[in-house]
Amino acid sequence: MLLTLNGIHKSFAEKPVLEDVSLSLKQGEITTLIGPNGAGKSTLAKIILGLIKPDSGTRLSNADLNIGYMPQKISIDPTLPISTCRFLQLANTSHQACHEALESVGIRHLTKTPIQRLSGGELQRALLARAILRNPNLLVLDEPVQGVDVNGQNALYKMINSLAKTLNCGVLMVSHDLHLVMSATDQVICLNRHICCEGHPEKVTQDPAFINIFGQTTAIYSHHHDHDHNLHGEVLDDHNHQHGESCNHD
Amino acid sequence: MTDFLLYAFLAGIGVASVAGPLGCFVVWRRMAYFGDTLAHSALLGVSLGVMLDVNLNITVAAIPLIMAMGLVFLEQRGFLSLDTLLGILSHSALALGLIVISLLPDVRVDLISLLFGDLLAVTQSDLWVIYGVACAVMLLLGLLWQQLINITVDPELAAVEGTNVTLVSTALMLITALVIALAMKVVGVLLITALLIIPAATARRLSHTPEQMAVVASVIAMIAVVMGLAMSWYIDTPAGPSVVISAGVLFSLSLGYRRLAS
Question: Counting CB atoms within 10 angstroms of each CB, which of A164, A240, A241, B46 has the fewest?
Fold first, then answer.
């Protein structure tokens, strides 16, 4: 076990963002966190990263936890002259390690390019390279395919998959997209302020047209979402929602 | 060459050497308005120093520092946007500084020299202060350089990788307050930000790494000091504004240089 959250609550300006969230991340396991905009995914990711403190609940981490983080987006002022290689070296590593990391994400040729000149997909790869630089045992990826075209998304997912295997690390991936969840995911957590449901993604109906466009690694994740939300994200009550073991609300 | 000109030259070079790298951070982190606010509050530092009869160097550095801490505190409350907060504090501090000066019964303060600098009035003891503080600033910048670049690029990424972001950004504020206290002697409170950002912006077009940009900015600030002093000497213009306009001219030239190069 790398990291465990227990009964996390977090509010911003009296408005609850996370309510009673518990989860655990394991070495060698890919966890995908999905949910609509405003569901608290990024807040939860930041609590996992230790960037913000929860109002209540506990965060227990393994003593040798070493997190590699790939932020959702990064904006570097164009007045800062910084090459891709130098950007990676900010993670406190050698020139050699940076070259290897860039090689493994396939952008070795962009070593000397100013980071602000990279395209959306190239920048995501550079961020991924920085995340894996210090041999992490947990990778936290916040919307890793944002701003990347569909073919690029697929390639990026494949890359994350194989890097996670090589590093044998745990992965937490945040996504707002219900359809582009990797089939390689071991655990899917559906978040909408509270954990709606979680579990292994099913082998889903594989629409041939869908596979044709997106390739084999992408599958529609269909989970058993047994309740509905209103526009405010509150749970509508007229359903037969089954709570998990860790659930202690009505 | 007369002594006062030599002192002015040395003071200008000392301040320019630290204005370069710090100016780069002001530009990279988009802190120009923040620098202005601290500079304006330095005037309040002078008036309070005169009123309470304490060493002006101390109050001129301390008031901007307190102001910077206050800004961080108010920003975290988050009820007003940062630029509105800066606008309120900047002009309130300037106004309060001017009022306090006007209320002092026996005014020994030359307002124009505070607002626009009085490089030609620098004394030998001022030089000691300037070079002492400049060395301290250089040392801090050198020790924290990598971490400062790191939090400038992305504070969250830096924090996850183990940088103490609060500590490093507080240190940057301390450095800013110190440099403002120094630069006040050269160009005065109203022109400090110009001395910080114009050389840095000029250096941007000539550099490929953050370190290069910091060094080039220092050199450009030094050239501006020499040009400004020469202008002041030969055509009798006020020294502070002459330094700033020289920096402006160098910036215009750098625009042309880029065009030639490409």
Answer: A240
